[in-house]
Amino acid sequence: FELHSIDKDRAMIEPALQLFDAVVLFPHDESLEFESWEKTWRQWTWCDALFMSPPALAMATRATGNRRYADFMNRMWWKTTDYLYDKEEHLYYRDSRFFTERAPNGKKVFWSRGNGWVMAGLARVLQNLPDDFEDRPRYETLFREMAPKIASLQGDDGYWRSSLLDPGTRPLPETSGTAFFVYALAWGVNEGLLDRPAYEPVIRKGWSALVRATRPDGMLGWVQRIGDQPGDTTADGTEIYGTGALLLAGSEVHRMRIHPR
Fold this sequence. Notes:
It is built from 10 helices and 2 strands. The chain has helices spanning 2-7, 14-23, 49-52, 54-64, 68-84, 112-128, 136-152, 175-190, 196-213, 240-258; strands at 85-86, 91-92.
């Protein structure tokens, strides 16, 4: 869809549209309770999915003008949000297995990268939803609601820890969540959704932390490996999604610098 926006070659998006046209026909009325990987492939039962599916569907509407894709995305987004979003903490559970889980300090378990996926997904959905889309204000409200909570959980060194409400149990840096948060907050400032004086120190501190985590060979360290909950990190730990999040963050931090508000 990104390439199609430049080249306008329908062949680039046709296979995706054929798949989406099939997916939207399913009723998607199953429970979102996480039972097993085999039984959760179609529903958005984990918060990671809010980065992976919704932006693509919003892009499909942007590319074609057909709102059925955004309408389907909207229905599914709020079904998952109604189920996984904690309205007291303003954070998402990774999936239903964590509703009753508690961290060693007694707090609820909220995964850094999982909530990073959501914040970045919100930013990318808002970039592609039509301006007059009926529920667009709901996404903006959710973004503004999560942002101050996320900012408040940043460590003094600029990193967010793997377990957001229990940083002491896993005190080492975690850069994939950090990078997604820096990206989303910087995008929010650049788009006028967030107050620059309030969030710029958080963004700058987070970006400096990511720069420090970049290894001499150019790879990003301290990335939690593939998982589904808070986990340990190492200085040498890296994954491609961490690099992608770093590039997203850098693009918005750069935009802040050359287009100050």
